[in-house]
Amino acid sequence: MATDSIKEGSLGAPTRHPLNQNEPIFWDEDDLNKELERVYDICHGCRRCVSLCNAFPTLFDLVDESKTMEVDGVEIADYSKVVDQCYLCDLCYLTKCPYVPPHEWNVDFPHLMLRAKAIKFKKGDTRLRDNLITSTDLVGKVATAPLINAAVNAANRNSTLRGLLDKTLEIHKEARLPEYARPTLRKQVANSATSQSNTPDNPKVLLFTTCYCNYNEPDVGTSVIKVLRHNGVEVSLMAREHCCGMPRLELGDFKSVTRLMEKNIPELYQKAQDGYTIIAAVPSCVLMFKQELPLMFPDDERVQTVARAFNDPFEYLFKLHKAGKLNTQFKNELGSISYHVACHQRVQNIGPKTRQILELIPGTTVNSIERCSGHDGTYGVKKETLKYANKIVQPIVRQIKQKEPDHFGSDCPIAGRHIESNLDNGKHHEHPMELLSKAYGL
Ligand code: SF4
Ligand code: SF4
């Protein structure tokens, strides 16, 4: 293409290319390094993303401290220092970068980081700690087992044992780890005697419970179920659910992502075919099914069908509202809410649906905070990155302290917990679905 056609920023809507992990070139390390050099050079000349996370400051420091003060002065061995700081929040792609496709510079920074992580993982350069903390389903199953459960939760609170974990596995001793719940959300639902009187006209939702809500914060999931049933929606769970694969994707472990996709997709596909809307109360899990799996498996019609059936929970409630089917008779006013908009919900491009629904509640004001919480799933617990996660969350913490709201929370309960830990004022984060349930008086 002629250079005079190069535009400053793209005027077209951003598009995303498939990952092409089945092409041999995807795994070629020399080709990766050439692409990293090309994109790092564009970023060095742009620097718009400097405040988003620690990946860009790491890159710009490497450039500024190099002999040439250009990307060609940075050692190739140091390229991975940037990659290690990226937790794939996607914000640079969606909210800042003017050079994303269809722009001919074709910058997809998060997916380039993902490719670098995948090559690193394939080479076996991944720590035992990272393998362990991204095995959310396995850890959750063990940690919620009888006898083990109480011991795990006690160990998480024990400073001597946490010191040991810090030394051996490099899980930061000050990271507030989530409690493991017994019974899990799925067991609570299975044990629940409450049945719903369904009619063929009831809208149908399949709740993908997610590892986090299932094992760590079941109250978020039970609130989703209560709110939906209160609105006449038939809610069911999968017969067998497995991790969505997002934590393994962030590690670059494409084999596990494929294995988990193969386990989840057949049942989800069947439900989608049967007319169910599929939702999950963790935006990263929704994004996995809506965006990442479709880009990894563009030719798999089952994956594409599931992607179309997947909704953010508030996107779904908003659709009900538009159809005149949302119950807007609220029993309780909520006062002021500081609400953190999770990055992985923002990048779904669905608009501020959570805020719009919460604002239907009388006597309720919502202050939205659109900043990354910096937690990711694992970045906020690792010894070497907790300090950055705690720094990234500060603008959110400052706003909440300033507003002194009656409630605070995030669409992402993991981000909510990270905010809570940094606020450290004894108040608990509440997922917007828990707030809605409270407003209904459920
Ligand atoms: S995806 Fe998020 S963490 Fe990664 S480089 Fe972009 S803004 Fe930073
Ligand atoms: S990702 Fe895009 S917007 Fe961000 S620094 Fe690089 S070129 Fe600039």
Please specify the SSE layout and strand pairing.
Blueprint: H1 29-46, H2 55-64, H3 79-84, H4 91-96, H5 109-122, H6 128-133, H7 136-143, H8 148-157, H9 159-169, H10 185-191, E1 204-207, H11 211-215, H12 218-230, E2 234-236, H13 246-251, H14 254-273, E3 277-279, H15 283-296, H16 301-309, E4 310-311, H17 313-322, E5 335-340, H18 343-346, H19 353-358, E6 364-369, H20 386-392, H21 394-403, E7 407-410, H22 413-423, H23 432-440
Parallel strand pairs: 1-2, 1-3, 3-4, 5-6, 5-7
The protein binds iron/sulfur cluster (2 copies).
How are the strands ordered across the major sheet? Answer: 2-1-3-4
Q: State the helicity in percent bands.
A: 40-55%
The top-level CATH class of the largest domain is Alpha Beta
Sheet-strand content, in percent, reads 5-15%
Structural class by helix and strand composition: alpha/beta
What does this structure look like?
A four-stranded parallel sheet has the order 2-1-3-4, sandwiched between helices. Strands 6-5-7 form a three-stranded parallel sheet. It starts with 28 loop residues before the first helix and ends with a helix. The protein is globular. The protein is built from 23 helices and seven strands. It folds into three domains: 13-122, no CATH class; 185-311, 3-Layer(aba) Sandwich (Rossmann fold); 327-440, Rossmann fold (3-Layer(aba) Sandwich), CATH 3.40.50. With 442 residues, it is α/β, with parallel strands linked by helices. One iron/sulfur cluster binds next to helix 4 and helix 5.
